[in-house]
Amino acid sequence: MERDLKDKVVVVTGGAIGIGYQISDFFLKNGAKTIIVLDILETTGAEAVRTLNKQHGEGKAVFMKCDVTKDLEPVSSEILSKYKVDVLVNNAGILDETSLKKTLEINTIAVVEWGMKFWDHMRKDNGGSGGTIVNVASIYGFEFDPWLVYYKTSKHAVIGFTKTLGHPQNYEKTGVRVIGICPGFTDTKILEGKLSDYRKEECVEFINSQIWQKVELVGQAAVNIFKVADTGTAWVTKNNQPIEPAPINAQ
Predict the structure, then answer these.
(1) Can you give the residue range of the structural domain that contains 39?
(2) 171 catalytic, yes or no?
(3) Domain assignment of residue 45, yes or no
(4) Which of 83, 151, 171, 198 is catalytic?
(5) Is 3 inside any structural domain?
């Protein structure tokens, strides 16, 4: 049942647009009971939930405005007072090569803080029922080229968090599976982010030369990964190809 989305209550950070929205949509298509969409974009988030409810049934999706860097305690408290959460999808992220602090606060620190909060809620050794934490990382959690220094740093940390918290010895004690999704170049608004001035033209040329995938493919890939991933592993979805284990899964 752990790898079956049927009747699961799922929290998705950054769920109003892009990969987060598609994960919400595809999880509902595959039987999720309720999707709680968290996003700082209030108007966009409310519209996303209206669309999801129109497609999947009234009340299947709920929106809560949330800044993942500031609102952990009030928002998580409200959620956990109303729901037994089965799955957390840590998806919120940015690309801003002009601000290391902002990048790490959103892409790394928030992922760890939200992950630990819901890990404690789910832990069987803490009164919970087990569950799954899905961390959306990137192929830049393990691949290297000369670009996007801050972004890569933040996503490498997400992989480290995923593999450590999701270590089999932790899973044996807690019953909480922790897995990673590593999308390749995907057609989302994140690539409208800010680049540094260092070799900027070369960076743009490199990015434009890559194979791009539709965001819907990542939503479907997230379902496939949810069904097959062992705890502490990360999986790649890129270049319009089937999912595959990331080359970092050896214990």
Answers:
(1) 9-245
(2) no
(3) yes
(4) 151
(5) no
Domain assignment of residue 171, yes or no: yes
CATH number of the domain where residue 192 is located? 3.40.50.720
φ, ψ at 184 (rounded to 5°):
-85, -155
Three-class secondary structure of residue 242 per DSSP: coil
- Sheet architecture: strand order including 9-13: 61-65, 34-39, 9-13, 87-90, 131-136, 176-183, 234-237, 244-245
Helix (H, G, I), strand (E, B) or coil at 130: coil
Domains in the chain: how many in total?
1
The one-digit pLDDT tens for each residue of the chain (251 residues) are 689 999 999 999 999 999 999 999 999 999 999 999 999 999 999 999 999 999 999 999 999 999 999 999 999 999 999 999 999 999 999 999 999 999 999 999 999 999 999 999 999 999 999 999 999 999 999 999 999 999 999 999 999 999 999 999 999 999 999 999 999 999 998 767 899 988 899 999 998 999 999 999 999 999 999 999 999 999 999 999 999 999 987 55
In a domain, 1, yes or no: no
